[in-house]
């Protein structure tokens, strides 16, 4: 996605979280914005791989029968 196509959002975070993200971004050679985008992208990818909570319960019940 080109930068001009990206959506802009206002994000309010605590100063302590900002410091942690800044240090992490520096370790990974990213800007803070890039680090936040990376982390959000990873969370979405992981979320898509997991079944919804109601399916997890259904699988557990079928395995116990």
Radius of gyration: 18 Å
Q: What's the number of helices? A: 3
What share of the residues does DSSP label as strand, in percent?
under 5%
Shape: extended
Q: Look at the structure and give the mean pLDDT.
A: 83
Helical residue percent?
55-70%
Tell me about the biggest sheet? none
Poorly predicted runs of 5 or more residues = none
Order of helices and strands: HHH
Secondary-structure-based class equals mainly alpha
Terminus-to-terminus distance: 48 Å
Number of strands: 0
Describe, in plain words, how this protein is organized in 3D.
With 65 residues, the chain is an all-alpha fold. The protein has a domain at 16-50. Helices cover 66% and strands 0% of the residues. The protein contains three helices and no strands. It has helices at 15-27, 32-49, 53-64. Helix 1 (15-27) packs across helix 2. It is extended and about 35 Å long. It starts with 14 loop residues before the first helix and ends with a helix.
